[in-house]
Amino acid sequence: MQASVESVAVLEGHEERVWNLAWSPSGSLLASCSGDKTIRIWGKEGENWICKVVLDEGHTRTVRSVFWSPCGKLIAAASFDGTVSIWSRSSGEFECVATLEGHENEVKSASWNAGGTLLATCSRDKSVWIWEVDEDDYECASVLNKHTQDVKKVAWHPHKEILASCSYDDTINLYREDDDDWCCYYTLRGHQSTVWSIAFDTTGDQIVMIKL
After folding, report:
1. Measured between alpha carbons, how far is 66 from 20 in angstroms, rounded to an integer?
2. Are the C-beta atoms of residues 121 and 166 closer than 8 Å to each other?
3. What residue spans define the domains of the chain?
């Protein structure tokens, strides 16, 4: 028997293309980001979904992706302006508590590890950065330059401190910490075109990717 899918809401408000969506860990909030340089936070009131907050002061160019921290109190937003903004939620209000700089070009993706102690970012500048997180303090722990082209997505293993990245160079790299630094320990090859996105399953035993 084929399952049916029903549209329950159409969320309108962004003025340009919507690039990415992310559910909060609790599933009660949805974050969206757009070419209009804003992030919108959506929630349900009664039977209706409404825009609860518009975050419009963090970036000067397209916001490419948004990612919630495991605790659900932080959002990382990656932008074409070369920065990543960190938004903290307290009592329903969001505040930009940090702006991460260093990438030389468009930032495409950001991802927290399972413990919320590490944040990975990647960019068109071909690099992957790993940031150590201590409350509102973000320190770059490593800059990884294994890819030869634009890096499209980063994703952490759900249980281990293993990071995956995919790129316009048709490869997927896997990273882990070794002697107080991070290194690429395996490269998945075989695709003949850009790998646009990657995701681990809940066990971490399998990884799926999108290519065109």
Report:
1. 7
2. no
3. 18-161
* Maximum Cα interatomic distance, the chain, rounded to a whole number of Å: 53
Instruction: Give the C-alpha separation, 124 to 195, whole Å.
Output: 14
Extract the runs of DSSP E, i.e. beta strands, from 70-194. 74-79, 84-90, 93-100, 107-112, 118-123, 128-134, 137-144, 151-156, 162-167, 172-178, 181-188
Asked if 80 contacts 106 with a C-beta cutoff of 8 angstroms, the reply is: yes
The topology (CATH level 3) of 18-161 is Methylamine Dehydrogenase; Chain H (2.130.10)
Tell me the CA end-to-end span of the chain in Å, nearest whole number.
30
**99: buried, middle or exposed (CB in 10 Å: 19+, 13-18, 0-12)?**
middle
Taking the C-alpha atoms of residue 147 and residue 171, their distance in angstroms, rounded to an integer, is 8
Residue 210 confidence (pLDDT)? 78
Predicted pLDDT at 91: 76
Q: How far apart are CA 149 and CA 125, in angstroms?
A: 8
Q: Which two tokens stand for residue 135?
A: 């409350």
Other Cβ atoms within 10 Å of 71 Cβ, number: 12
Segments of the chain with pLDDT less than 50: none
HSE, side-chain direction, 13 A CA sphere, residue 13: 20
Confidence (pTM): 0.93
- Residue with structure tokens 């209000």? 93
Cα 71 from chain centre: 15
